[in-house]
Q: What sequence folds into this?
C-alpha cells in the first residue's frame, strides 16, 4: 500500500513543491497551511510521516511537534529555513526525528524521509527482549518497560536504543550511530545524536542527570550499562 504523508507548510508554493516531490516518490499526501490543520490531519488517522515547518501563522511548529508527540509516535521531519543549531536542537528536543533545511534538493528530502521510514519498518524476524535491571527493551515493538511501566518511544529513539543494545557493554561513537540510525544520507549537525540520547534519558532514567543505563563514554560515544 502507498505511504501517507502530511505536509504542514504555510507557503502555498513551497507546500505544493514538497507535496509534488512526495507524490513523485509514491506517497499519498494531505496538505495543511496551519499548525492546527496539520495536527488534526496527523492525528485523524494512520499517517506514516509528517513534514513540518517551524514558522507557521497560528502556532509555532515546535509547539505543534510537542503536541503531536504527546499524541503519537509518527515520524516527524522538520523542513525549515531556520537552520541555526539552536533552532534545530529545539525542534529535536520537541520530538522531531530529523530535519531538512530550506532550500533543499528534492532527492535529499526524499532520502531523509525514506531514512526515517526505514526506522519504522517492522522487523521480519523475532527479536529477543533485552533486560537491564529495571529496564526491559521490547525490541521492534516501539517501547520499553521501566520499573514495570511501559514507556512509548519514537521510531528514532527505539532504533537508537536497539543499536546500543546490539553492542552490549560497548561504546558506540556518534559517527557510527549516525550511519546506523540516521542513514548514510545524513548530513548535518551530529548533535542530533546527543539530543536523542538526552530525550531517552528523560524517559528511562530516574535521574537523567545521573544516568545508570545510558552512559556517556568520554571521547568515545555512548553505551548501555548492565548485563545484556
A:
Amino acid at each position: 500500500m502507498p505511504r501517507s504523508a502530511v505536509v504542514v507548510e504555510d507557503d502555498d508554493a513551497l507546500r505544493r513543491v514538497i507535496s509534488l516531490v512526495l507524490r513523485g516518490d509514491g506517497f499519498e499526501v494531505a496538505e495543511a497551511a496551519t499548525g492546527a490543520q496539520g495536527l488534526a490531519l496527523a492525528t485523524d488517522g494512520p499517517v506514516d510521516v509528517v513534514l513540518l515547518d517551524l514558522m507557521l501563522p497560528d502556532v509555532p511548529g515546535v509547539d505543534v511537534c510537542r503536541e503531536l508527540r504527546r499524541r503519537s509516535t509518527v515520524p516527524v521531519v522538520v523542513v525549515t529555513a531556520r537552520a541555526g543549531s539552536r533552532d534545530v536542537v529545539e525542534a529535536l528536543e520537541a520530538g522531531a526525528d530529523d530535519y531538512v533545511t530550506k532550500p533543499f534538493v528534492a532527492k535529499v528530502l526524499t532520502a531523509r524521509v525514506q531514512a526515517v521510514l526505514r526506522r519504522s519498518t517492522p522487523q521480519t524476524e523475532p527479536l529477543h527482549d533485552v533486560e537491564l535491571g529495571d529496564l526491559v527493551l521490547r525490541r521492534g515493538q516501539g517501547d520499553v518497560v521501566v520499573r514495570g511501566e511501559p514507556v512509548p518511544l519514537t521510531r528514532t529513539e527505539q532504533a537508537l536504543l536497539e543499536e546500543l543494545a546490539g553492542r552490549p557493554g560497548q561504546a558506540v561513537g556518534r559517527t557510527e550511530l549516525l550511519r546506523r540510525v540516521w542513514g548514510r544520507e545524513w548530513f548535518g549537525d551530529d548533535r542530533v545524536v546527543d539530543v536523542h540520547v538526552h530525550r531517552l534519558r528523560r524517559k528511562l532514567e530516574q535521574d537523567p542527570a545521573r544516568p545508570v543505563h545510558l552512559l556517556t563514554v568520554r571521547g568515545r560515544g555512548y553505551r548501555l550499562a548492565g548485563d545484556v
Q: What stands out?
A: Helices lie at 12-24, 35-44, 61-71, 85-93, 106-118, 155-165, 174-182, 191-204. Residues 54 and 61 are 4 Å apart (CA to CA).
